[in-house]
Every structure is written in C-alpha cells, then in structure tokens.
Amino acid sequence: MKGTWSMEHPKLDENYLNLGSFFDIYNEEDFLLRNMKIQNELIETQIIQHPIVEQTILDHVTFSDCEFEKADISDVIFKNCDLSNCRFPESSIFQVEFQNCKMIGTSFEGSYCHNVVFNGCLMDLSNLDKMNLKVMQLNDCSLKDASFSENKLNKVSFKNCDLNEMTIWNTKLKGIDFSNSQFETIEIDQDSTKGLKVNTEQAAYLASYFLDIRVSY
C-alpha cells in the first residue's frame, strides 16, 4: 500500500547486554557506551561532545537538563524515559526506538535520523528543525506546539498524532499523510502543503487559513 514501508529495528539481543550505568560512558576516552542495559537512573546536567551509544537499552532513565552535541546513537531503545528539555544538536540517530518517552521541549535541531520510531511519546514544544529524516514513524505521539521547519523528509509517517499548534515552515510535505492525525490550528506556509494528504476537516481549516474560505457541511 502506498505510504507504507519496512523499518529496520535496533539490532540488539537483550540476553547479551550488561547491566550498568550511563556514567560508564566516562570510562572510555571517546565517551562510548555499548552493549548495556541501564534502568531506573537519573542523569542530571551532563554535557558531552560527541558521545557514542550503541546496542543499548535505556529503561526508565531520566535525563535532566543534559546536552549531547553531535551524539552518535545507533541500535538503541529508549523505554519510558524522560528526555524533557534535553538537547541533541547535530546528532546522528540510526535504528533507534523511543517507546512511551516524555520529551517535552527536547531538541534534535540539525540532526540526521534514519530508521527511527517514536511510539506513544509526549513531544510537546519539541524542536525538530533543520533535520534530515529518512524512514521515520511517529505513532500515537503528541506534538503540540512542536517546531518542524526547514526539514528534508523521505518516508516519514504520522499516525494518530496530535499536531495542534505545530509550526511547519519550508518543509516539503509531498506524500505525507496527516489525515489520521489531529489538529485544530497549525502554523504552516502554503508551499509546504503541496502534496500533503489531509482529511475533510483539515482541508477546511487550510482553506480558511490561506484563502479565508469558509466550508459548510
């Protein structure tokens, strides 16, 4: 069916992971964390340039006011984590799953994502600008007041997401389907909407937004 594609999931085997702490990343000179399972940990005010996290599960981990610039994150699962207001500028995120994570105000500005899934995540006020997104799914996520501008998209899907008051500028949405997601208002430029699939109510809003047309039913 058009609009569907296969995802590559994180390549890891939980049976072969070592229990540890996120702070083990400081044991390596190049800030490397690999083959780990980290649970129920609080990480506060950490600033790391180019950390590398591979084949790792983070479960119920809270990151508070952290910045990981140019992070390299691959084959990683975040479960029930709190990443609110954390910053991942210019990072590379490959084959990563975020499951039921709290990500209010989280910034991925300038990052590259390939084979990334967000399931049931709270992403209100997040900064998703200037990103290169290839094969990404957002399922049952809240993106209220999120910024989604100046992005390059390839095989990106939104399913049952709350997009209310989202800001979208200078992002080609051709082939993107918003019809099974929801918004009452959205800030978007007209060029970005070309080729965007919407439902009847969303079409009526966009007609009013751009053309001051009122649609009656």
Automatic annotation (TrEMBL):
It holds the Pfam family Pentapeptide. InterPro entries: 5peptide_repeat, PA_immunity-related. This is Quinolone resistance protein. It comes from Companilactobacillus nuruki.
